[in-house]
Amino acid sequence: MIVELILVGVFIGTMSGFFGIGGGIILVPILLVLGIDIKDAIGISIIQMVFSSIYGSYLNHKKGSLVIGEGIFVGFGGFLGGYIGGYVTQSVSDSVLQFTFMGLLLFALFRLFFSPNHEDDSQTKSLNKALLFAIGVGIGIFSMTLGIGGSIILTPLLVGLLHYPLKKAVSAGLFFVVFSSVAGMISRLSSGSIDFSNALIVAVSSLLGVGIGIWLKDHITSKNHKMALLALYVFSLGMLVKKIWF
User: Fold this and answer.
1) 186-190 long-range CB contacts below 8 Å, 24 or more apart?
2) What band does 103 get if pLDDT is binned at 50, 70 and 90?
């Protein structure tokens, strides 16, 4: 199991850096297939997201693709929502978590598929800071309840509604994961419900993949990046459907 978890960690880290996701969108279904129950899988996912999002955001900022700006308000909202979401998980049944996860995947797939490509910042819209904070709270609650970073919801919103260029939206999405995942970790730790032995194996292994993923992101066109992101959502949806019905 250790070798499998190391390989999964490197893979998830690469996906995290490339797509700007915390990794839970892929990691949770994979852990379910490996025989880990969903609540333990969510705990492992949260720890992995803390590691990959902090390191990935540092690399993105260093390369100039992460402009903090308004993202800080969404991030603070995500911290509050993520803290609340860490407690919500304990009182929600596995089946509700799985079907909610599926609904979010379908939403992200639809929103991103119909969004136009924006190559620059000229059409980027702005929102009231209080509204950005509220959006962060909502996404944070949903994401930590499901063990995902939240960028699966935030990135399609930034691209489809606020006209962010995809690569900047991806960097902003990973930055959001820093806030939501740290808050989720704090609240989950207070309830003593994280499998640390497996979580640290996946998390530390993911750091290698994060650097690889960010390098790949910087060397691909926005159009191909979008197609790859859509393929990711379809893949994760398929894995979840397999777990629920087969």
Assistant:
1) 186/83, 186/86, 187/82, 187/83, 187/84, 187/85, 187/86, 187/87, 187/144, 188/43, 188/46, 188/86, 188/89, 190/86
2) confident
